Amino acid sequence: MRPKNLEKEQAIKSVALQLIAEEGLENLSMQKLAKAANISPRTIYLKYADKDDLLIKLYIEEVLGAYEAAITEGLHDNMTFEEGVKHIWMKSFEYYKTNQPAFALMLYGKSSPLLNKAFQEMNIKEGQYFAPIHQFLELQVKKGKIKDFPFTVQRALLFAPLTDLINEYFEHINRSGQPVTPQILMAACETVIDGLLKK
Amino acid sequence: MRPKNLEKEQAIKSVALQLIAEEGLENLSMQKLAKAANISPRTIYLKYADKDDLLIKLYIEEVLGAYEAAITEGLHDNMTFEEGVKHIWMKSFEYYKTNQPAFALMLYGKSSPLLNKAFQEMNIKEGQYFAPIHQFLELQVKKGKIKDFPFTVQRALLFAPLTDLINEYFEHINRSGQPVTPQILMAACETVIDGLLKK
DNA sequence: ACAAAGTAAGTAAATGTTTATTTACTTACA
DNA sequence: TGTAAGTAAATAAACATTTACTTACTTTGT
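^ inputs. structure came back:
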């Protein structure tokens, strides 16, 4: 039996993410992807059932999974609230800075009904994504350190600005006057931390 | 000369937004739109040069323009920082609650390169979008009331969580346990306000 | 007061292209 | 040599956009 070429498997994923980042999800086609990855369209269908399957797996595994792994690495329950949140902000920035195409598809996850639905279903079937963060925040509430909001609200308050700032970072990456420097990012992080503290 | 039917003009816009919200920008086609709006494909081309032109105008005029008008109405420079930010949060929530399709396309504006680019160019040509908010925040900085961040950073800290929360609101609208109630929203708003205050 | 001419708004159907996916074949290795 | 991995080319459907025509109203000459 002919062994599978892992380079081709990887090429499909990374070229797909690249094309999505450059031209948008709405302009990705299987034939364009095959040509750009230097493979036959059929090869994609050996690994994915159809286009939706490819997009969903790309989003769940390459984007959400890889991101979760990157930011939860080194996150411990014995960290203070400040340390934990700063850890996630820093790791997120570092991760996406070197994985811009993953960031682009992550953003599409917030708008595309296909990806959105896939995320909801995955969350139900496989247990909460970002469970370590959920757990970390729950502990801080129990300690009386931070305000007791539902998890989704805490997530919005602590991390929605971060996504916006990383987006801003990329938009200014080839221009003068980058507003998102590491110092600004840390100051912004301290701002969201301070807001959520119980006074 | 036969007068134009304004209902059809309006139908194109509202049906397009609806289809995008339901099936995603990546699944919108001109023929589908024509059929859903009960018009001929040609009619769309009488009002828009091509598909990109339609999407860009929909995004800039119907989504960003209408939203800006909705939230800046009643925003005055003599409001306190707290009043101003709460005003924008409340108006935003009210506006999007009754314009979910506009919210869906607004989200695509953050991911789609086409819409993103259109927004940048519009901002350069026509002057800053959300200028009243820019001006309001600048005044608060001058007064020494809030931390002096670049505008984009202030926007991220004050309003990115709001977008996330409205999204969350829609995702729970037909389910039990809605986490985004008006009270929670106001408490979250107070949290972002508190974070940005100069201490 | 009124019909008929002029015209932009509108339509149905066609255009050529691109799409997702499949068929029929070839390749490279265990 | 058997077989899964891979390919090039084909298929049918859907796509953006256009063509050739009709409609419905305004204008104009009477």
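Residues 1-3, 29-32, 41-42, 45, 50-51 of chain A lie near DNA strand C (CB under 10 Å from a C1'). Residues 76-196 of chain A form a domain with the Tetracycline Repressor; domain 2 fold (CATH 1.10.357).
thumbs up if we can close this ticket
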